[in-house]
C-alpha cells in the first residue's frame, strides 16, 4: 500500500532517481506556468496577474482531492504521509518575512530555481541572496531558540482544528478555492492585463473543471475516511501473522524491564471499563475507551510521540488489548504491543491469593467469561497496591522471550527540513 | 514586453495548477512526502560550510542536524528534488524558447535597482523560509494539500506580508 518505502524497495539510487523525476515534473510545471518571470509573480500583489494564486490553489486542491480520495479508497495510508508539524508563531513570522522578501525580490525559493535554470539574472541573484539568508539563519537561530521551537502543535490537521470530518474539510477548501478563482478572474478583468500571455480557456471548460473538482470533493465526503479497524483489514494479511505467532504479546517480565528502561518512553494504555480500572490498574497506565480508539481519538497524539515510544495495551485478558492493537496498527502507529495474559495474568503471577492486609484480593474459582476480571477486590485499589508497580518486581527472576524491537518507519521528513 | 515573438505563451494557470497537483499527488503517493525547494538550498549552504569550517558545523545545533560528524548534508532526498527542479525548469525553458539571459523588472526602475532588490529579497526569503521550516513549496503547497493547520496559517502570512508592503514598493513592479 502506498506510500512506499522507496529506499527499501528500490535501493538508495533508485529512490533518489524517483525524487529526481518528481523534481523534474515540479520544475517543468513551474516554468510552464511562467514562474521564472519575477514580474509575473509580483503582479499577483497588484491584482493584475493572479497566476500565482490560481496555480497554487489549483495545485493544492487537485492534490488534496486525489490524496483523500486515495485514502478513502484504502490505497493510501494517510497516517504514513508526512504532514509538516505545526509550529504556529515561527511559521507565521517566517511567512510574513517571506512575503516581504517576495514583493522585494520577486521570487520564492522554488520559483527562483526555475529562474536560475532559465538564465534569468535577477533569479540567479535572488537565489544567491537566499543562500545568504539561509546561512544567516543557521548562524543566528541560537539566539532565539525558544521562539523557534515555540507553539508546537505536532501533526495538526484542519479537520481537527475545525472539528469537522476530513471529507467536509475537503469540500470546504474546494468551495473556498472556487470562490478565490472567481474573484481572481474578476480582479484580472479590472486591474489587468498581466505579464506575458497565457493560453486562455473558455468558460464551458472552466465550469467543467470546477464542476469536476466539486464532484470529486463530494465523493471524498460521501466515501468517508476509513476507520482504524477498516484500515487494519487492508493490512490484515501482513499483520495477523504477528498476532498468531505471538510476536506482539509481551510477557509481564518484559513490561517490567521496559518500565525501568530510561531510554524508552513507555505508553501504557488500559482499555478496560472504568470499574475494572478503578479496582486495579498498573502504575502510570492511562485508561482509554475502545470506542475512542475506534474513532481514532488518540491517533494524533500517538503519531506525535517520539520514535523511542513503546505503546503497551492492557486489558483483563488479551481480547480487548488485541482489538486495540489492531486499531492502532491500522492507524500506522509504530511499536505497539500488548500485555500477555492481561491484568488477570499479571495478578496470577504477582498477587498472593488472599494477601494484603486481610484478604482484600482473591482469585475467583468460577469460570471467568472472556474479557472479565478474574480477581475479586474487597475495596478498589487503583494503583495503590505494591503489585501495581512494575518497578518493584525488577529483581524478580522471570523467564521470557523479549519481543520488543524499536522500529522506525522509513518515513521521510519534510521537504524543507 | 518580456517575451519576444518566438517564445511560446505560458500554459493556462488552471491547467498548470492541475499538472502541479498531479505532480504533488504523485510525490505523496509514491514517497509519502511532498515537494521542497528551500531544504535543498539549506543543505547546499551547510555542505559549503562543512567544507570550509567542519568544526563549526559540528558545534551549532541547527547545522548538526544536517551535517554533524560524518553526515553528508547532500545525501538526502530533497537535494534530488531540487536538482530535478533545476533540470525540469531548464528543459521546459529550452523547449519553449524561454532560455535567455535577461533581467525581468518593472518599467520604472533600473536593472541595477532590480538586482539589489533581488539579492535583498532573497536574503529575507532564505531567512524567513528557515524560520517557518519551509518555503512556499514545502509548507504552503505540500502542507496545504494535506491540510496542515500550520501550513495554512503560514500561507496566509506570506500573502499578508506581500500585500501589506506591495503598495509602498509599487515603483519596483508597475
Task: Provide structural commentary.
The complex is a heterodimer of chains A (417) and B (174). Chain A is an alpha/beta fold and 417 residues long. Chain A is 54% helix and 8% strand. In chain A, strands 3-7-6-4-5 form a five-stranded parallel sheet. Chain A has a two-stranded antiparallel sheet with strand order 1-2. Chain A has a two-stranded antiparallel ribbon with strand order 8-9. In chain A, helix 13 links the parallel strand 4 and strand 5. The radius of gyration of chain A is 28 Å and the shape is elongated. The two termini of chain A are 26 Å apart. Chain B is mainly alpha-helical. Chain B has two domains: 101 residues, no CATH class; 71 residues, no CATH class. Helix content of chain B is 66%, strand content 0%. In chain B, helix 2 packs across helix 5 and helix 7 packs across helix 8. The N terminus of chain B is likely disordered. Chains A and B meet through helix 1, helix 2, helix 3, strand 1 and helix 4 of A and helix 1, helix 2, helix 4, helix 5 and helix 6 of B.
Q: Briefly, what is this?
A:
The complex is a heterodimer of chains A (417) and B (174). With 417 residues, chain A is of the alpha/beta class. Chain A has helices at 6-33, 38-42, 51-72, 88-105, 109-117, 121-140, 145-148, 158-162, 166-191, 203-223, 228-244, 252-260, 274-279, 290-294, 299-303, 319-330, 342-350, 355-359; strands at residues 86-87, 152-154, 249-250, 265-270, 285-287, 309-314, 336-339, 361-363, 375-377.
Could you state the oligomeric state of the chains shown? heterodimer
Strand fraction of chain B: under 5%
Number of helical segments of chain A? 18
Strand segment tally of chain B: 0
The geometry of chain B reads as: globular
Estimate percent helicity of chain A: 40-55%
Strand-and-helix sequence of chain B, N→C? HHHHHHHH
Arithmetic mean of pLDDT of chain A: 91
Amino acid at each position: 500500500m502506498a506510500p512506499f518505502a522507496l529506499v527499501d524497495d528500490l535501493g538508495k539510487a533508485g529512490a533518489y532517481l524517483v525524487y529526481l523525476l518528481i523534481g523534474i515534473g515540479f520544475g517543468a510545471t513551474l516554468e510552464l506556468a511562467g514562474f521564472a518571470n519575477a514580474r509575473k509573480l509580483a503582479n499577483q500583489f497588484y491584482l493584475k496577474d493572479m497566476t500565482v494564486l490560481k496555480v497554487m490553489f489549483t495545485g493544492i486542491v487537485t492534490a488534496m482531492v486525489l490524496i483523500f480520495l486515495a485514502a478513502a479508497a484504502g490505497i493510501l495510508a494517510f497516517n504514513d504521509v508526512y504532514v509538516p508539524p505545526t509550529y504556529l508563531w515561527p511559521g507565521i513570522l517566517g511567512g510574513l518575512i517571506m512575503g516581504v522578501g517576495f514583493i522585494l525580490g520577486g521570487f520564492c525559493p522554488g520559483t527562483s530555481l526555475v529562474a536560475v535554470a532559465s538564465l534569468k539574472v535577477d533569479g540567479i541573484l535572488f537565489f544567491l541572496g537566499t543562500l545568504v539568508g539561509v546561512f544567516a539563519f543557521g548562524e543566528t537561530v541560537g539566539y532565539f531558540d525558544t521562539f523557534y521551537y515555540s507553539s508546537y502543535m505536532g501533526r495538526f490537521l484542519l479537520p481537527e482544528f475545525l472539528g469537522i470530518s476530513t471529507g467536509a474539510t475537503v469540500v470546504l477548501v474546494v468551495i473556498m478555492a472556487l470562490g478565490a478563482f472567481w474573484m481572481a478572474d474578476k480582479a484580472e478583468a479590472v486591474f489587468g492585463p498581466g505579464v506575458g500571455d497565457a493560453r486562455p480557456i473558455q468558460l464551458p471548460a472552466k465550469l467543467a473543471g470546477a464542476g469536476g473538482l466539486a464532484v470529486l470533493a463530494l465523493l471524498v465526503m460521501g466515501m468517508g475516511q476509513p476507520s482504524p479497524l477498516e484500515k487494519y483489514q487492508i493490512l490484515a494479511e501482513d499483520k495477523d501473522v504477528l498476532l498468531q505467532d505471538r510476536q506482539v504479546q509481551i510477557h509481564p517480565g518484559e513490561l517490567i524491564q521496559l518500565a525501568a528502561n530510561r531510554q524508552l518512553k513507555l505508553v501504557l494504555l488500559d482499555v478496560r471499563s472504568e470499574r475494572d480500572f478503578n479496582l486495579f490498574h498498573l502504575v502510570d497506565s492511562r485508561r482509554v475507551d475502545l470506542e475512542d480508539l475506534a474513532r481514532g481519538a488518540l491517533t494524533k497524539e500517538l503519531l506525535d510521540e517520539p520514535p523511542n515510544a513503546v505503546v503497551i495495551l492492557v486489558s483483563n485478558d488479551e481480547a480487548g488489548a488485541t482489538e486495540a492493537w489492531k486499531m492502532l496498527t491500522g492507524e500506522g502507529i509504530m511499536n505497539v504491543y500488548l500485555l500477555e495474559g492481561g491484568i488477570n495474568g499479571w495478578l496470577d503471577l504477582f498477587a498472593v491469593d488472599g494477601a494484603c492486609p486481610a484478604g482484600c484480593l482473591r482469585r475467583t474459582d468460577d469460570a471467568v467469561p472472556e474479557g472479565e476480571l478474574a480477581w475479586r477486590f474487597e475495596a478498589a485499589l487503583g494503583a495503590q497496591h505494591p503489585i501495581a508497580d512494575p518497578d518493584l518486581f525488577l529483581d524478580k527472576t522471570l523467564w521470557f522471550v523479549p519481543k520488543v524491537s524499536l522500529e522506525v518507519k522509513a518515513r521521510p521528513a519534510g521537504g524543507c527540513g | 514586453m518580456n517575451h519576444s515573438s518566438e517564445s511560446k505563451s505560458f500554459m493556462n494557470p488552471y491547467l498548470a495548477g492541475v499538472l502541479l497537483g498531479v505532480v504533488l499527488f504523485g510525490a505523496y503517493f509514491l514517497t509519502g512526502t511532498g515537494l521542497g525547494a528551500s531544504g535543498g538550498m539549506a543543505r547546499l549552504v551547510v555542505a559549503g560550510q562543512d567544507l570550509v569550517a567542519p568544526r563549526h558545523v559540528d558545534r551549532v545545533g541547527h547545522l548538526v542536524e544536517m551535517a554533524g560528524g560524518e553526515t553528508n548534508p547532500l545525501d538526502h532526498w530533497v537535494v534530488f528534488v531540487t536538482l530535478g527542479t533545476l533540470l525540469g525548469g531548464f528543459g521546459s525553458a529550452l523547449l519553449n524558447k524561454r532560455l535567455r539571459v535577461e533581467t525581468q523588472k518593472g518599467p520604472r526602475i533600473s536593472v541595477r535597482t532590480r538586482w539589489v532588490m533581488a539579492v535583498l529579497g532573497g536574503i529575507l526569503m532564505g531567512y524567513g523560509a528557515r524560520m517557518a521550516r519551509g518555503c512556499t513549496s514545502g509548507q504552503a503547497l505540500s502542507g496545504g494539500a494535506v491540510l496542515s493547520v500550520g501550513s495554512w496559517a503560514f500561507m496566509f502570512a506570506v500573502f499578508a506580508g506581500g500585500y501589506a508592503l506591495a503598495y509602498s514598493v509599487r515603483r519596483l513592479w508597475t
